[in-house]
Design brief:
Blueprint (H helix, E strand, L loop, with lengths): L2 H13 L10 H21 L3 E7 L4 E2 L3 E10 L11 E7 L5 E8 L4 E7 L10 E8 L12 E8 L49
Parallel strand pairs: 2-8
Antiparallel strand pairs: 1-3, 3-6, 4-5, 4-7, 7-8
């Protein structure tokens, strides 16, 4: 049985003792909720999860520059340096979704660092919105949603060093490159809620 099936089975079993709380006494409802919290703690111990965050040296880049980053890998429950994984995978994808490079970095005390060079001599490194993805092997057991992702604009190299007055995201290519990204699905209905900084919905 793979780990995702174990997760589904555990969550299903956790919900069995907890039918709807309506009509129950406060003490009974509290006992049920406390047991549910204990089950979550047991789940975190048996199947620990990890989170990854990357800190970058800039918010946008130009062709020929280097993207420097520092990575933090922590436990999802306590936000403590992970001891579960020793390798972090970091990927660089261009605007068409093509994986240009993958780094395998050693995690020490929950941290590691690396860089990506935006090679102007390679045709695949054209201007556009690039994506950097980072994950451990264990994170993939919980689906693509757990993978760290960050998107950056990469502008065309300026004609003169230090001149950033004319920034262009056009790739300037005469040939059509395949798009490796899945086509987004159009949603008929979109629900949006706006909350203040405190996180509570304000009447009116």
């Amino acid at each position: 049985m793979d780990i995702m099936n174990k997760v589904i089975l555990f969550l299903f079993c956790s919900c069995l003792p907890f039918p709807t709380l309506m009509g129950q006494t406060d003490s009974t409802a509290r006992q049920k909720l406390e047991q549910f919290v204990r089950n979550i703690h047991i789940f975190n111990r048996l199947i620990p999860q990890e989170k990854v965050y990357l800190h970058f040296d800039n918010t946008s880049y130009v062709q020929g520059e280097t993207i420097w980053f520092k990575a933090y890998a922590v436990t999802a429950a306590q936000n403590l340096p992970t001891t579960q994984s020793s390798v972090l995978y970091v990927e660089l994808l261009n605007a068409k979704g093509k994986r240009l490079e993958t780094k395998k970095l050693k995690i020490e005390n929950g941290q590691c660092h690396g860089e990506f060079f935006l090679n102007t001599l390679n045709m695949d490194y054209f201007p556009g919105f690039y994506e950097i993805r980072a994950y451990t092997g264990g994170m993939l057991n919980f689906g693509e949603e757990t993978v760290f992702s960050r998107v950056f604009p990469v502008f065309e190299k300026s004609k003169a060093d230090g001149d950033y007055t004319e920034q262009d995201l056009k790739d300037g290519l005469d040939i059509s490159l395949p798009n490796h990204r899945p086509k987004p699905k159009n949603r008929k209905n979109v629900h949006v809620d706006f909350y203040p900084e405190g996180g509570n919905l304000v009447n009116g």
